[in-house]
Specification:
The protein is of the alpha/beta class. The chain has one domain: Phosphoglycerate mutase-like (Rossmann fold, 3-Layer(aba) Sandwich). It is 37% helix and 21% strand. The chain contains five helices and six strands. It has helices at residues 2-22, 56-68, 83-96, 108-117, 131-137; strands spanning 27-33, 76-79, 100-102, 120-126, 153-160, 163-170. A six-stranded mixed β-sheet has the order 3-2-4-1-5-6, with helices on both faces. Helix 3 links the parallel strand 2 (76-79) and strand 3 (100-102). Helix 2 runs parallel beside helix 3 and helix 4 packs across helix 5 (131-137). The radius of gyration is 20 Å and the shape is globular.
Length: 177
């Protein structure tokens, strides 16, 4: 009987490092489109710049996002290198003390690989045409295409041992397309 207990304990001790290494830290990725653009009222074909600022509603939404993620224990913030995306992430950056790290939206496959292998909790600020592709590259479900004036989506992807779960919530002023 003692021998069986000894063997069982020995097997458990030897297996412990395998069990610990097999259970990776979960990866949680919060993904949002930049907040409302200052030139939204003009329409896409009348925009005055390719890099507009946020509107008053956009600034309000960016502060709301920061308050919503206050307890999320973020470890990294990622943004494309445009004013509207950086400014959407700025209140969260200020609240957490995390610097905004820039990513290249033209290479979403590499960025998805980076995100999918870096444990922690990430905020990613992107665009209506890049977020769905990034979510798919991570193995998630982006749902319907994002409309031109739709800014209220917050995706939450959890990646645990290669399994991806996608949750979509709405925040701030709701889009009624």
């Amino acid at each position: 009987m003692r021998r069986h207990i000894f063997l069982a304990l020995t097997a458990l001790v030897l297996a412990a490092p395998v069990l610990v290494t097999a259970q990776e830290d979960p990866i949680v990725v919060y993904l949002v489109r930049h907040a409302e653009r200052a030139d939204d009222v003009l329409g896409a074909d009348m925009a005055t710049t390719d890099d507009p600022l946020l509107s008053t509603a956009g600034r309000e939404r960016s502060y709301l996002l920061a308050r919503m993620l206050a307890d999320a224990e973020l470890t990294r913030i990622h943004s494309t290198d445009l004013k509207r995306t950086r400014w959407t992430g700025q209140p969260t950056s200020e609240m957490t003390g995390l610097a905004i790290e820039l990513y290249d939206p033209s290479d979403l496959t590499d960025f998805a690989r980076q995100l999918g292998t870096t444990s922690g909790r990430h905020l990613v600020v992107g665009h209506s045409n890049t977020l769905p592709r990034l979510i798919e590259a991570l193995g998630g479900n982006p749902g319907d295409p994002i409309e031109r004036l739709e800014y209220d989506r917050l995706y939450i992807l959890s990646i645990i041992e290669g399994e991806v779960g996608t949750v979509l919530i709405r925040f701030g002023n709701r889009y009624h397309g």
